[in-house]
Each structure stands twice: as structure tokens, then as C-alpha cells.
Amino acid sequence: MKIKKVKWDKVGLSVLPYLVILLTTYVMLRYQIRAHATFITSDRFLHFSRFYDASMQIKTGNFSYFQMNYGFNECGRIFNALYGPLFAYLNGIALILCRNWYNYSLLTNVAVCLVGGIGMYQLGLKGKVNRTISLLLAILYLQFGIIIGMMRANNFMAWGAALAPYVLIQAVNMMQDKERPIHWLTLGIVMAVVAQVHLLSTVILAVTLIPFAIYSFVESDNKKQIVIDIIKAIGVAVVLTANIWGAFIYVYASNKIATPNIYSLRIHAIHTSLMGRFYQHGHIGFGFFLMMVFQFIYVLRYFKKSHLSTLATIWSLMIFIVSSKLMPWDAIQAKYANLGSSLQFPYRLVVGAIPLMLMAFGISATQVWEQKNYREVKRNFILFAILIVIFEGLGSSVAMNYSYANTYANSKRVVSMDSYYTISKNRKKFRRLTRKTNNGELFRNLSHAEPDYLPKPVSNDFYGNYVIKARKKFKHSVKGSKLTITWKSKKAKKMILPLIMYKQSQLVLNGKKVSPKLIKNGQPQILARKGQNSATLSFKVATWFWILLVITILGWIGLVVYWIILLSRKIK
């Protein structure tokens, strides 16, 4: 049997783009690495808390799918079940392996950049963009407000942005693959992955795919097959996310769930900035704005050259306009007030539009790159123009990372939060917690109120007073899925427990099941006896939900087995 010689030059060229993306990630994170800094904002604290809960469930074996017994002040509220549940457990494992908060935060920052950069590079190649241009656009993609939001504030929409190129590869398939435009299995899987990470991104990216699906339907000679394949993709996604929509139905059907904090839509709409400031959410650098203008003009003149580029340009520009300050967001919010807490930030709408625009620009740049007349001049100009925009963004992201790291190292400020209730005044102690621990000690020195998924709408101050501050008077313990608090009372009296109860919650007070009166944020008001008291909180889960969870887990296991079989066949 002849063994083919490895052509190392080709191996090197194929690996080089990924090494460049990794190097770019290091440059963006360099100052954080040097300072061993952990930037804790309100968003990062929220996700730290929910992943800590998942890690403790794994460590102790006390699993509780709905009720959170370790995170969020040990109050038994719901969060992970409605916000990327399987991804939460994956992060819990990562937190255990990383051994401290700094290592974990650095790992997530690197992961987002690598996933997003590689995805954008592959999207460019899928759109038949020149490899050099694809790599440059991948580097540029890492500098934008949404994806770089992971480094700045742990904005979880960054994960949606990192996964967006993989979804949009399916949009390219819809236009390029004339025989089978809908790759239903891949489409269903990638949408399910996004849903298990960040549900809002799934909705926005699904809408982003609509024009491409319509195009494939109109152009196809087998429209029936298109419909069948779309239904199959939806079926795959539904099976692989049954735990998510099942949890929403189970919780929302019987509870008036509180919405997140309300924000001004107009303030958080897309706008250009002459100073770049790519790292700021909603800011579009002036260089990228000029790139979009060039792309629009080029498409108007050569719209027949690439239907993919034309559709991607027009659709992404429409999304940019809708998400920008050109829209009367104040009037829209006045009429539809719920958008202030559900959408919150219009810039989120461009999570799919940015990679679409970059791919479209890459297609146009490749067409110009390959023209014979003045080829070298054109190539040098394209490289120069893209590099200018990259340096604009990279300069902003590095400056942001330096500013945060410098603040962490030399200032009394160790966190960046809009509001908090308790924080350690000892800067050295706080640094020790982030560099040496991955346990609950961090949350005993730093607390922050968030209203998301409480059973009733309530202010942050109310939650802070009746849960965060009150919990210090009680001892907490967990057994199985049940949370128990104990305390001593000098006399029999009415009191409010720092626990959160939903319609499905059950409370046992001093050995007896009770149905207490609930105050406005879902906390039970009980009659404590003189002396030692105990209260045990549990959450009743319907059998049908466990069936959905098992279906989801078996679905993912089945896909892994199927992939292994395919891989083994290729090896043979």
C-alpha cells in the first residue's frame, strides 16, 4: 500500500488562517491577560451566578432543572430553565475545569472570538470569496459591537453573533445548491444550537433567513421538496429544543413572569461614530459605514453579477435601517411599551445583517480582485481599504481592553455595574476571589439585583431589600432538588422568607406543607414559631416535561452517534 506524502506547504496554508484569527484574539485580550483581570459587569455577574449554580449541581449531584438552589442568592428562583439550559450545564463544567473566575472569563472570551472568526471565514469561503479577503473580513468581524460585547460586558448576544455565520451558511446553500437548496438536517441542528445558547438570536436569525428561503422556493423546479425540507428542518429543531419551549409553556402558562429591565429603544439603536468605538454596543465605525456605501453602489451597478451578493446587500441594509436611529423608536416604544423589555436594544437586530454585509462586500471585492486590468493596483487598494477598517476596529477593541485592565489594576473600581447592593471594599480580597476561587464566596462579597423571570414584576430595590439583604439571617442547605433554610426566632411572629415561589413551588414549614400568602415578588409570608425553624422549598415538575427533556437529550445523543458512524465510514 502506497502512503501519500504529506504536502506540508498546503497544510501550513490551510492552518494559517486559524492561527491568524487566534493571534488576533490574543492581541485583543492581551492587556486583560497581563493584568489577570476579571471584568465584572451586571451582565457578567448574572451569567456567573447561573453558571455557578449549574457547576454546583454537577459537583454535588443535587440536580434541580427549574429551581436554582445555589445561584441568585440561594432563593430558589427560575433562570437557567428559560435561558440556554443545556449550554448553562456546559458552562458549569467549564467553570469547574477552569478552577477560577479569571480563567473561565478568559476562556469564554477566547471561545467567542474563535467561534465567530472561524465562522465568518467559512461563510466567506462558502460565498466564494477570495481566501485572503475572507480572512481579513473574519478579523474585522471580531471588532464589532455585538461580538466584542462578550469582552466588554459579557453580553450574551455575542454568542448569537459568533454562531450567526454558521446559520447564514445555510442561506448561501439556499441560493447556490440548485438540486437541494434546503439542507434540512444541518439547518435544523444549527438553529437548535443557537436556541440552546441564546433564544432571541434564534428568532432574529430565523427572520434573516426568510428572503433566501423565498428565493430558493421561487427558483426551484421542485417546490414541494422545498416545503418538505423546511418542515423537516423545523421538526429537527423542535425535537432538539423540546426542553426549552416545554419549559416556557410550563412556567408561563400559570405564572405572570417578570420581564427584564426596560431600556430606551432610541438610545440603543444603531448609529455611526466618527471615532470608531466599535466596542460600544450599537456603534458602527465610519470606515465600515463607507464600506457599506461602496457595497450598495457596486450592487446597483453590477446587480446581475451575483444574486447572492445583491440579495444579501439589500436585505442587510434594510435591517440596518430598521435597527438604526432613522426609525422613530420613541414613537414605536410609546405604542408598544413591551419592546423596551423584550427587544431592549434595536442593535440586536443586526446580529445576522453584519456577517451578511461582510460576505456581500467580500464577493464584490473578489470580483474586482480578479479583474485583469490594473489587477495589482486594485488588489493593493482593496487590501489597504480593508486593513484601514480593521485597524480602526482593532484599535478601539485594544484600547477598550487596556482601559478595563488598567482600571482593574490601578483603581479602586474593580467592577463596572450600574447598581449593586453589596460589594467588598477590599480590592485585594476581590482580586483573590476572581483569581483563586470558582465558588460562592464571590457572591457573598458582591450582589446585584435582576428582575428576569421572577414570578411577579418587582423593582430591583425591593428584591435587594427582601432577598439579597435578608438572606444573611438564614442558613441554607440543599438535598436533591430541595432547598432548606433554617433560622432561630426569639418569639412567634409573622415574617417574610428570602425564597421565591411560583405556582408550581411547594413549601414545607417545620415539617408541615403550607400554602403561604405571597408578597408582590413571590416571597412567602409565614408564621414562625419561637425557637428553631426550617422551611423547605421544592418545585413540582409535570411528567410531560420530563418526557420532553428525555426526547431532547436522546435527540442530541442520536446526532452524535450518527456523526461518529459517518466519520468512521469516511475513515474506512
List the helices and strands and how they pair.
Layout: H1 8-35, E1 40-41, H2 42-60, H3 85-98, H4 101-126, H5 131-141, H6 149-153, H7 157-176, H8 184-197, H9 199-219, H10 223-240, H11 242-252, E2 271-273, E3 283-285, H12 286-301, H13 307-322, H14 329-335, H15 339-342, H16 353-369, H17 375-410, E4 415-416, E5 422-423, H18 427-436, H19 441-445, E6 446-447, H20 460-468, E7 475-479, E8 482-489, E9 493-496, E10 505-509, E11 512-514, E12 517-518, E13 524-528, E14 531-539, H21 543-571
Parallel strand pairs: 1-4, 2-3
Antiparallel strand pairs: 5-6, 7-8, 8-14, 9-13, 10-11, 10-14, 12-13
What's the Cα radius of gyration? Answer: 26 Å
Q: How far apart, in Å, are the first and last alpha carbons?
A: 14 Å
| Whole-number mean pLDDT | 89
Tell me the strand percentage band: 5-15%
Regarding quaternary structure, what we see is: single chain
Can you offer a commentary on this structure?
The chain is globular. It has helices at 8-35, 42-60, 85-98, 101-126, 131-141, 149-153, 157-176, 184-197, 199-219, 223-240, 242-252, 286-301, 307-322, 329-335, 339-342, 353-369, 375-410, 427-436, 441-445, 460-468, 543-571; strands at 40-41, 271-273, 283-285, 415-416, 422-423, 446-447, 475-479, 482-489, 493-496, 505-509, 512-514, 517-518, 524-528, 531-539. The protein is built from 21 helices and 14 strands. By secondary structure, it is an alpha+beta fold. The mean pLDDT is 89. β12 (517-518) and β13 form a beta hairpin.
